[in-house]
Specification:
alpha+beta; five-stranded antiparallel beta sheet; 5 domains; 22 helices; eleven-stranded mixed beta sheet; Rossmann fold
Length: 886
């Protein structure tokens, strides 16, 4: 972009914000940045400046191109020449005013003369007192030799006049006070020191000068001038356009020094003072990130920060030296909050401009004011504050040269000293969910729980996301799996890490969703992993995102949106698959193959380490069935446990369980699992399967749900049959299931709701209590015509109006006008039935979780048969006791 166009955009922005309105008023003044106190040369007869009134200077308006091309001078030189001429003209005007005042004093004792007579008298005096040319030349030569400027005759006459008795007496009188009645003040109106004759004026900061200096900082990420105007910059040029300067009595924000400390091995601090508070209403924003690449988290309302300094990958002693960053401390107004809170443009466009104006103290009464706090962190000085080493971040080079951003939290030795006689501490790898960065918060449940029990904790940004390089491949064993293997090798080189043997740290893995999938992939390919606890994970993505060839539209779109918003670098084929599925409801064979290769799949068969699996009863992305598939592959692994809890990718609504209690339960069980199989501190739990029902009661079993003897040979719930017959139209969205209640959009679109255009079949109740744990089996006789390839089914709890598990099951159909039959297992559920239960099966033709706008036609449901699986292997433990001991 050319300089002219750049200036035009910034200048236009300033005028649009109101700071350029002085150009259109009669009281404005155009002048250069007064931070330059050097004396400019005098203005010759060809000057571009002319006096228009006593306090105004007008400049010739010449195109920028003329200054830049005709004279072949730089933009900065051109601006400097204009500034020099303006300053010289100002000096000349000041001398003229001094002469005028002298004449007025002299006239007080002299006869009144006409203006023409005074002018003639002054011209005659000038001729008599003007020195010969030789004297002027001599004076100039003498000045050159001594390095000082020779005073002009006019200045000498002015000094002589100042020494006259009358002038001296007049100067001793007290000056009349000046008052300021306008925010915009003419030059000289705030002059208060009239005793220092010839003393240089204090530097003045103009509105536009300060504004553009701040804008320079915002627009130039490499800027570090902290708001100081740069000579020859845009501010000088736009300044000459004629904006007023603001009153010198502008509001300023005085901020106390910052504070830095170490808490549990993590650097923390306050941007302002020693106690982070919201008392003064300040807003805090990171302006310059950590100088060496550390990771900074800032509380926008209190100014509290936590900081992971950067350490070289090859350094086992952690970080060292000094790292700096800066935070903008602003006190906003209601107007500022309103405009920065506007949708879309508020944060991205308006906020940076407002912050620049606040730093420049422009319109502080309207916009508020701000100051920059530069913070310095001396890591070496902080090392000795606690016995725990300092947590840090670094890059680990993977097998193909990709840099993986990695965070290392050392164990809190003072809380849980190592007692097994081995040097160092065990390590937990905690993987993040998709579109989430590796945890940097020491208060993260996994991070804090394990560190307090004497584990190092490692987190990381997966390949293709956030600070890591490469391209995201959805937990591919060939990519993300090998990345974690490299992290394991790196951890083995760090101080404070316990090893089983060389290059083999004593370690376990935890995490949910994407962080659960990576555990399957890593443990299947790297035998250095000692235990895993994957939560909310999957076996194959086609089974999860494309069950029975029905594309899970809503959650696929949510996942893609999350990756786009976080600017992840994704395998382009993933985009194509989601777009094809969302628009046409189908995936191509190559897209299915890509999903098949992303995640564990049958590689789970090779996992022999202790494995804790937990899956959500209301998970509508990776349903309960995915955990059953993974469990079935681990038939030969003796140390496996499965938990079903009310949570996951979904909403645990009242009447579906106790989501809060279950979250604590799963965390506690995860910690116990690592205490058993990584630290060898507690015995193994004999229960291999536990679940919660819709009342929040926890059930335990010593038999796996994949075992032959888990289910009752004859279900305790009698089979329900229905043969009334009903024809349903197939129209997208109309009368179908979803979006679900209560949950926020867009997640509610992945949940089911009671359908209106449906076949509703009341299910037969048991004679006593019955645990329904597993997949309802449905046989449907039907016929129909249309473009639809699926109808849908769900179990509804009429007592609450909720879909059990919020889960909708696609049922493949063939609508060719002939009689057809489909026999299918729906998605698994966990529900304790009684003789008074009120459940019904609904069959319908459209659902927002699988929204497909190409489906039309009709279907005639002739008869339905429903069988619910029950088990007698469970023991009711009542509501989850909290907290559970570890």
């Amino acid at each position: 972009m050319s300089a002219a166009s750049y200036v035009g955009r910034v200048g236009g922005l300033a005028i649009a914000l109101g700071v350029g309105t002085a150009i259109l008023t009669g009281q404005g003044v155009a002048y250069a940045d007064d931070t330059d106190t050097s004396t400019p040369s005098s203005v010759d007869s060809g000057s571009a400046a002319s006096t228009t009134r006593d306090d105004t200077v007008t400049l010739d308006r010449q195109p920028l191109g003329k200054h830049r091309t005709t004279d072949r001078t730089s933009l900065a030189d051109t601006v400097k020449n204009i500034v020099d001429r303006v300053a010289a003209e100002r000096e000349k005007r000041a001398a003229d005013r001094a002469d005028a005042e002298a004449d007025a004093d002299a006239e007080a004792d002299a006869p009144v003369a006409r203006p023409s007579d005074r002018r003639k008298h002054r011209e005659a005096a000038d001729e008599q007192e003007s020195p010969p040319a030789q004297q002027d030349s001599s004076a100039s030569t003498e000045a050159a030799d001594t390095g000082t400027a020779a005073p002009s005759v006019e200045k000498a006459r002015g000094l002589a006049w100042l020494k006259t008795p009358r002038v001296v007496a007049g100067r001793e009188a007290e000056a009349a006070p000046k008052t300021v009645t306008s925010l915009w003040t003419p030059p000289g109106a705030l002059t208060t020191d009239e005793t220092g004759v010839g003393a240089p004026a204090a530097p003045r900061t103009t509105v536009v000068g300060g504004l553009l200096a701040a804008l320079n900082r915002v627009l130039d990420p490499g800027s570090s001038n902290n708001g100081t105007p740069i000579g020859g910059s845009l501010s000088d040029l736009v300044l000459l356009a004629g904006a007023r300067r603001e009153s010198a009595q502008v509001q300023t924000l005085a901020i106390p020094p910052y504070s830095v400390d170490v808490a549990a091995g993590v650097i923390v601090g306050c941007t302002v003072g020693t106690t982070c508070t919201t008392a003064d209403g300040s807003v805090y924003t990171v302006k310059d990130g950590p100088s060496k690449g550390g990771k900074l988290t800032l509380d926008a309302t209190t100014g509290a920060f936590r900081f992971l300094p950067f350490a070289d990958e090859n350094t086992s002693n952690g970080p060292s030296g000094i790292e700096t960053f800066s935070v903008l401390v602003a006190q906003n107004t209601k107007f500022t909050d309103a405009i920065t809170g506007l949708p879309i443009i508020g944060a991205s466009l308006i906020t940076p401009i407002v912050q620049a104006l606040q730093q420049a103290n422009v319109l502080s009464g309207l916009l508020g004011t701000a100051e920059l706090q530069n913070i310095e962190v001396n890591i070496d000085d902080l090392r000795g504050v606690t016995d725990t080493p300092v947590a840090f971040t670094t890059f680990v080079t993977s097998w193909d040269g990709v840099k993986i951003s990695t965070n290392f939290f050392p164990a809190i030795a003072t809380n849980f000293p190592d007692v097994d006689g081995n040097p160092g501490f065990e390590t937990i790898f905690n993987g993040p969910g998709l579109a989430q960065a590796g945890a940097t918060n020491p208060a993260d449940p996994f991070v804090s729980s394990f560190r307090s029990l004497g584990y190092n904790v490692v987190t990381w940004d997966p390949r293709g996301e956030f600070a890591s390089g490469g391209v995201l491949q959805l937990d591919s064993p060939q990519y993300e799996g090998q990345d974690v293997s490299e992290l394991i090798s790196w951890v083995a080189t760090q101080n404070g890490v316990e090893l089983d043997k060389a290059n083999d740290p004593t370690m376990g893995m935890v995490g949910v969703s994407y962080g659960g999938g990576i555990q399957w992939v890593t443990a299947a390919g790297d035998n250095r992993v000692d235990a895993i606890a994957p939560g909310w994970s999957w076996n194959t993505l086609p089974d999860s995102l494309y069950p029975h060839s029905a594309f899970r539209t809503t959650y696929s779109a949510i996942l893609l949106l999350g990756l786009v918003e976080t600017r992840a670098r994704i395998n382009p084929q993933i985009y194509g698959g989601i777009l094809t599925g969302a628009t046409l409801g189908v995936l191509t064979p190559s897209q299915i193959q890509l999903l098949q290769n992303s995640g564990p799949g049958q590689t789970v068969r090779g996992i022999s380490v202790p494995t804790l699996i937990f899956q959500g009863t209301v998970d509508v992305l990776f349903p309960l069935h995915q955990s059953i598939v993974n469990l079935s592959y681990l038939a030969d692994n003796p140390n496996v446990k499965l938990l079903w809890f009310c949570g996951g990718h979904g909403t645990c609504l009242p009447g579906q369980g106790n989501g809060t209690a279950d979250s604590v339960w799963t965390l506690t069980e995860t910690v116990k699992w690592m205490q058993t199989y990584v630290k060898d501190l507690i015995p193994a739990d004999p229960n291999v399967f536990e679940w919660t029902d819709q009342t929040g009661d926890r059930w335990t079993s010593t038999v796996r749900p994949t075992a032959d003897n888990f289910y009752d040979a004859i279900s305790k719930v009698p089979t329900t049959t229905w043969d009334t017959g009903k024809t349903l139209p197939i129209i997208p969205i109309v009368g179908g299931s979803g979006p679900g209640p209560i949950a926020p959009a867009p997640y509610s679109y992945g949940n089911g709701s009671e359908a209106t255009n449906a076949v509703s079949i009341k299910l037969t109740n048991p004679t006593g209590e019955a645990n329904v744990v597993g997949a309802p089996h449905v046989v449907i006789d039907y016929s129909g015509l249309g473009t639809s390839r699926h109808i849908y089914a769900q179990v509804v709890d009429k007592s609450t109006g909720l879909v059990v598990g919020n889960i909708v099951s696609p049922v493949p159909v063939t609508l060719n006008g002939r009689d057809q039959q489909v026999e299918i297992d729906l998605e698994d559920i966990a529900y304790t039935m009684t003789p008074t239960s009120d459940l019904e099966l609904q069959i319908f033709t459209t659902a927002t979780p699988f929204l497909n706008l190409t489906q039309f036609g009709f279907v005639n449901i002739k008869s339905v048969e429903v069988t619910l699986p029950t088990t007698s292997q469970g023991t009711n433990q009542g509501p989850n006791p909290l907290p559970l001991a570890v």
